[in-house]
Structures are given as C-alpha cells and as structure tokens.
Amino acid sequence: MRNSSLSQNWAVRFFTIWSGQALSLFGSSLVHFALIWWLTQKTGSATVLALASLAGMLPQVLFGPFAGALVDRWNRRWVMILADGLIALASLILIYLFAMDQAQPWHVYAILAVRSLGNSLHFPAMSASTPLMVPEDKLTRVNGLNQTLQGLNAMVAPPVGALLISVMPTHSILMIDVGTALLAIVPLFFFSIPQPVRQEMSQSAAKPNLLQDVREALVYMRSWPGLVAILAMAIIINGLLTPTGALMPLLVTKHFGQGPLQLGLVDTAWGVGMISGGLLLSVWGGFRRKIVTTMSGIIGIGAGVILVGLAPAGWFSMALAGMFIVGVTNPIANGPLMAIVQSVVKPEMQGRVMALINTFATGITPISLMVAGPISDAIGIRTWFWISGIITLLMGFGGFFSRAVMSVEDNHTSTEIPSSPAAASATD
Q1: Torsion angles phi and psi, residue 285, rounded to 5
Q2: What's this model's pTM, rounded to 2 decimal places?
C-alpha cells in the first residue's frame, strides 16, 4: 500500500510543506489582484482584462497534460522548487519593469503566462505527492483543508490587496510574492517527498517520450468508467457555471440595482461558504462512500445557483444566501472526488492523471465564456443562472442512478495497462 510506510509523524512533514505552499498561494493571489487592478486603471478596457484572463488560463490548459507527464518523470520535490522559483523569477522581472516605470500591458500578459506555466507544474506535483505523504483515511479531510484555503484566499486577498495598493507601489506588492515563494521553497530543502517507482523497461525498449506518457495516462483513464462519466459531468457543469461568475457584476447592477459594495458581498458570501464547507469536510470526513458526498455536493451547488437566479430584484439577500450555499457545497463536491483519485490512481501516474483531469474540466471554460454573453443577452442573465442550476441539480441526482458513477471507487482497472516504453523508470 502506498501509505504503509508512513510514520506517525507524517503530519509534521506534510503540514510544514503545506503551510509554505499556502503562504505562496496567498502571495500569488495578492499579485494577481494587484496586476488586474493596474490593468484596469491603466487601460479601462474589458478586452485587455479578457486577454489577461486568457494569458493566465491557456498555458495551464494547453501545457497541462505534458506538465503531468514531466511530474511523473522527474523528482516531484524539485518540480515544486522549479515551479515556485519560476513564478518568483517572473515576479522579479516585473518588479524591475514597474520600478523603472517601463511596464506595459503586454509585459503583464507575458508574466501571467509564465506564472500559469509554473502553476501547471505545481498543481499536479503537489496533488500527486499528497497521497504519498498523507494516510489514505485522512485524504478527504486534507482536501477539505485545501478547499478552505481557497475560500480564505478568495475572501481575504482582494481586500488586503486593495489596502496594499492604497499604501504601496505595485513593485513593492510584487516583492511580497517573491518572499512567500521563498517560504514555499525553503521547507522542500529540509523535508523529502516520497517518489513512486515506475516499472522498469527492458533495455531493448526505446526511451519513452512525453506523448507516450500522456497516451498511457489517457488509456488508463479511459479504462475507468466511473472517472470518464464524472469527467463528462464536470465538463458540462464547468461550462455552465464558470460564466455565472463573469455575469455576476451585470446581475448585481442591472437586476438587483446594486453597486460595488454589494458585488463584494457576493464574493464574501461565497468565500465564507467555502471556508465553512472546507472546515466541515475536514472535521466530518464525508460519508463512508466518498462518491455519495460528492454527488450531494453537486446537488447543493445546483440548488444554490437556482436560488441566485430566482431571486427577485428586491431580494438581494436571497442571492447572497444562494452564493453561500454554492460556497459551502463546493468543497463537499470536490474534496472527496480528489481523495478518490489520490487513493486509487497508481502513484507513478498521479501527476499525469491529475493534470489531465484539470485540463479536461477547465478546457471548456474559454469557449463557454465566449458564448455565454450572447446567449445571456438573448435569453436573459437570470435565465442562464437558473437553467445552469437546474442542469447541475439534475446531474447530481442522476449520478445516484448511474452504476458507473456510484461504483467509481471500485470500477477502476485492476490490471496493468499494456505498457509502452512510457512505463520506464524515472530517476531522481
């Protein structure tokens, strides 16, 4: 078993590394807020902001599968050091440009793309390393803490970033990101991360390439009916729900007749919900069958979105309640699903599978953002919300009647995938 050799002091190593990564994530959130604010103040262009979003998204979508293959080939501790170092270096370059008053929007696009490349390596490396450092029965709780961290960042980083912008120049805020990146790197020099052992290839076999590694992971995932079904659900749900965030400012201003304070309250309600749901999951641990917890969370997300869409113009508090429900149930849906993958997928394939899941689940986002605007103009913003919520709700209920979904913890392949040279052993 992958966790059989863990000592009783596993928490010291894991949470020391985890704390450094959490601080780095907070620093990155501050920098992202500061850069978006700078672009807004300098250009006032929605197109510029859209391009910035794409620059921060597309590298992870396009490079993600290959990043996962590299994570499974390389030493994962050094991958995380490389990723955090690359992000810190990008910030240092931008610090120089801002200090010299030479920064232009295209510089910010380029740095956001580089940071996205770093994140495409960091996410699968940390996610794939977690089940090698954490006992299997604690994985759901740890993923609950990760969801709590996301909620804290969503709630705390914007106001802290706004405060810092009012008292510090942009290049000084960027220095915070460099400092927090170093806090993430330092523990990795003192604590090891277990490396999975990949199958040895025969000496006559050709050296594997990245495409073969990715293909092997795709074959592995395709042989797991439950994962394929859940990925299909995730693609549809993300494609429907991601635009609701982009449409929220219009819903708040045009339908509810409110201003920026109320828009901020929407983010706060979601963030408080994420923190509450993540803490609940970390303490409770979910139902005995993790997939039951996940499907229940999806139902809750759908119900919350429906509540937002159905709220009358004078019932803004009803929309806040809906966003709180979405926030609470988001960790309930995602945390156990991550734990399923971490506990079932072979350690030597974790990086590739995690990266591919992220790519498939988020790859629809650029398309959905492009089509959501015209469709919402035609059918109404509220209509997009409640249709998206209803479909999400029905998918959550439908999952309980899908044999593939409900047996996802058992219907993964029990035999080895016919190995190409991609099964070669990776050295540190």
Answers
A1: 90, -5
A2: 0.70
